Amino acid sequence: MAAGFARQKDVKNVTPPKRVAAIHDLSGFGKCSLTEILPILAASGIECSALPTAVLSTHTGGFSGFTYRDLTQDMPAMARHWKNIGVRFDAIYTGFLGSEDQIQIVSDIIDLLGDEDGLVLIDPVMGDEGNLYQTYTPAMARGVARLCGKADVIVPNLTEAAFLLDEPYREGPYDHAYIQGVARRLCALGPKKVVLTGVYYREDELGAATLDSQTDEFSFYSQKAVPGFYHGTGDIFSSVLLCGLLNGLSLPAAAALAVDFTHNCIQRTYEASIDQRFGVLFEQAIPRLIQRFGLFPSTDPQSR
């Protein structure tokens, strides 16, 4: 039999994949946003339709002289075309937004393309280490807070949580009461579920806390902290979290999967002594997702 043809027993019981509209920027180099999201979703058996907010030569962390093409004017037309041809999405997934105008555009796109049974996951990518990114303003942070009211799940770090709540940023280590309070105040903005990243109760750990406002279930899961600051890990975490949820995992289980996968990517990069600006070695961890969701047996010994 020709190698290009699958045996019949390999294609039995195939169902159409779930489909995600990913509204993110595209950085050609540096491993973040869509260059991570597309392969991660594909490895989890999920179809990804990309709606880019901007195209950059690299991400903005640690690089200078990067190119930037704003696609704000293209976003509504792309979404309307998808609507006109009858494309249905199981989830809408948003991340870094390049302007205040894009916040309202994304809100309109959620109204246009959102499905009654679908999931809206918003990663409010605005800042880190207590500061907003240079392209964000307090007015944009307030706009993103309003946008989060349309989400089923939001995935802020502790910096972004502080700006969403208009509260002072607090450095860790944290305590359970503080993290639970932040999560509950975030749920009061409108989302049903909150996943807080960058949470640690001890200096040697780093993880995520989850709160489901409908059940009041709170969870926390962590891994051993790895030295350094690694670009693109927030996008990896949120993407794996979404994959877990769309594949039927509970919120705590999906968050734990995302913590483990992100930690594995960081650990590989740390051991390889890669320039941290260049992103993490997530490609080598992809077999873990393929095996986890039963798409193909993994050949990666670290995934067993």
Notes on the structure:
- This protein is an alpha/beta fold.
- The protein has one domain (18-292): Ribokinase (UDP-N-acetylmuramoyl-L-alanine:D-glutamate ligase, 3-Layer(aba) Sandwich).
- Helix content is 36%, strand content 21%.
- It is built from 9 helices and 11 strands.
- The chain has helices at residues 34-43, 75-84, 100-113, 138-148, 158-165, 176-187, 233-246, 251-272, 286-292, and strands at 19-29, 47-58, 68-70, 91-94, 119-122, 127-128, 131-132, 153-154, 193-199, 205-212, 217-224.
- Strands 3-2-1-4-5-8-9-10-11 form a 9-stranded mixed β-sheet, sandwiched between helices.
- A hairpin with a 2-residue loop joins β6 and β7 (131-132).
- α3 packs parallel to α4 (138-148) and α5 (158-165) crosses α6 (176-187).
- The chain is globular.
- The protein starts with 18 loop residues before the first strand and ends in a 12-residue tail after the last helix.
- 43% of the residues are buried.
- The model has no long low-confidence stretch (mean pLDDT 92).
